[in-house]
Each structure stands twice: as C-alpha cells, then as structure tokens.
Sequence to fold (388 residues):
Amino acid sequence: MRKDLTDAVHNLYVTVIGSVDLRQESRALFQVEDLLPAQISIASSICLELFEKFVHEVSIAIAREHATTEVNFNVPDMPKEGLAKLRHVGGWAVRKELERARRYMRANMFSLSSETRQNLNAAHARCSLLEDHVIVQYDWIKDNTTSPETLEVTENRQFRERGLLHISDPAYTFILKLETLRVELLNTHRIRHYEAKSEFVDNALKSVLKNQEVKSAWDAVFHDAHPDKKRTNYLMQLLQGTCGWPLHSSSRIFGELTNSRKPPSTEKGSCKRQQVATVRKDAIPFERIVRDNSPGKQSSHRSLRVFVEKHGASGLEKIYKKDQLVKLCRGYGVVVRSTHNKIQLSNLLLEALNACPEERIPYPFSLGNLESTTETNSGRLILRIRRV
Fold:
C-alpha cells in the first residue's frame, strides 16, 4: 500500500507540474498567448501549494486510519522465538527485583528503626517468595516444562553469563496473560486517540489489577504459599511491581504503570524545569543592567518591575547571585548587612522595587564596576575608589 501511494503521488506531481495542461491553464488564467517567466513562476507556485495541501490531507487521513485500526495480534500464537523472548524478559525482571531487595537489605541490615526493620522483613519475604516459587534451575525445568521451545533463548550463553534466571511455567503463563492484556489495552488506547498518556497509564493499571485472568495466573504461581491476609496483600503489591515484565521492552509508557510506587518526580520534575526555563527567559541579566546607559537606568528598572510582578522574590533568588543582589539592593537604597542571605536580600529588593516612587533606579552608580570607601586620616577625608 505504501509503494502504491508513493507511485500515485509521484505521478500526480509529474502530471500537474510537468504537463502541457499546466501551460494551457496558465494561458487561460492570465488571458495571454505567450507566457512570461513571472507568470509561469506564479502558476507553478500555485500548483506546488495545492500539491502540498493534498499531501498534507492524505497524511492526516492515513494517521487517522492508523490510529483507529486494531493490531490483530494473538500472543499465544507467536513463533517460538517470540515466546522465548517473553520468558527471557520474565527472568530478567526477576533478577532485577531480587537485586533491588538484596541491595536494600545490605544497606539497612544494621538499622534500629522499627519502620526500617519492617521494610527489611518485607524485602526478605519478597526474596523468599521469588526464590521458592518463581526461580527454578535449568537442569530441572528442561525436563519438566510444558514449553521447551521457550528455553532456547534464555539458555543462550550470552544471557546465562549475565546472571539471567529461569522462571517456572506458572510464572511464564502469568507473563503470557499479562502480554495479552497489554495488546488489548494498547488497541483500546489507539482507538481512543484522544486519551492522554496519564489517563492511559491510570486506566491500564486499573484494568490490570481488576483482570481476573491475570489474578488467577498470578495466584497459580504461588499455589502452595501460605494464604494469610498479610501474604495476600504482599502478593498484590508484588503484582503491581512486576506487571511490567513483558512490557518493558515494548512500551515505555505502559511500563510506568508497573511500579508499586509511582515515580512522582517525573511530571513534577518536568514542570519544575519548565518553570525555571521561563524564569531565566524573562530575567534581565545583571551585566545588561550594569551596561544600561539610560538616565537612572530607567530601562533596567522597568524590566525589573515586570519581572518581579510575574515571578516575585523567588525569581530574583533563582536568577541573581548574592553579590549581585547586594548591589541591586544598594541601588535602591536598601541597607544591606553581611548576615543577609539570598532569600532575605530578594525580599528586601522586592519591597524596595514596589515602594520606589520614581521610574528609575535611585542610586545607579551602586551597580557599576567601581567600589568606593571613605575614611578619615588626621582630620582629612579620604575617598578610595577601586574597580571590582
């Protein structure tokens, strides 16, 4: 289909731009017998604009059809290489989960905090569950598995030497169920192309946790585990932490829903970076204030007024260094002490800016590169000026 579309668009381009009809239509458009170069150029530009508009509309139609088309993909019917890859991803996830729990235990094994001790017990229980019910030896699984073709990838030396672990058949079945649900959810998301990413992640997590087939497959992994309430709750937490086993390699968005603790810093960090970028974009550099030659540095004063109205004292604190804030404060007649920090200086400068009755900086020479000191010597007043 893609080749046919390319050929058709090419033929359309050649037909419209390079045909005799173009000259005939151009003569009719300008009502002349002999076309001038300028008239030919205008007619060609009109045709090119129409052609680009046509290609744009075609691309929109293709994208719309692509977004509302389901992916006809049956996970259990994948070739053995694909199924083996799924099993490999499961083994990889088990190893990562074990390493995470073991690192926590090594780092906090001597802690005296009661809360930390509870977390240590939970991490130990997590390791015990994985080691007792999920991890199996290759020598045993190769003779007892119902899917021997899925062991070909995971027993490959390049994976085995990197610490890959083999998982049991029930764990492999759970991953198959989870991958099937992932494909269904992605199809739903493609059809609802208006759904935002955040909504997709939340809805997908709810669907995974409510799906009875996934729950049953997960329970089958731990069929002989003690079914007390604490263990059941822990299994549900572990389910949330491992939903992304088959999803990691194919969907980064969907993988975000799997953490038992959602990463709160992702969106907040992005918003914070955008806010900092906006503050820096609106700020007036201190060097520009120093070089401002307008009377009383009026231009810089107006820019500072606009900046503080939008970003306040926190904006001043983020943009200017302490020595720059000191000079700005002195420029507005603020008495500065050596004990003042950036927050205090920013607040003092904000108050001075708002209270300034003139449309200028009252003491502009305080912002220059010269520093003056006065002292008395034998009754004489000495003024010392130095460049800073």
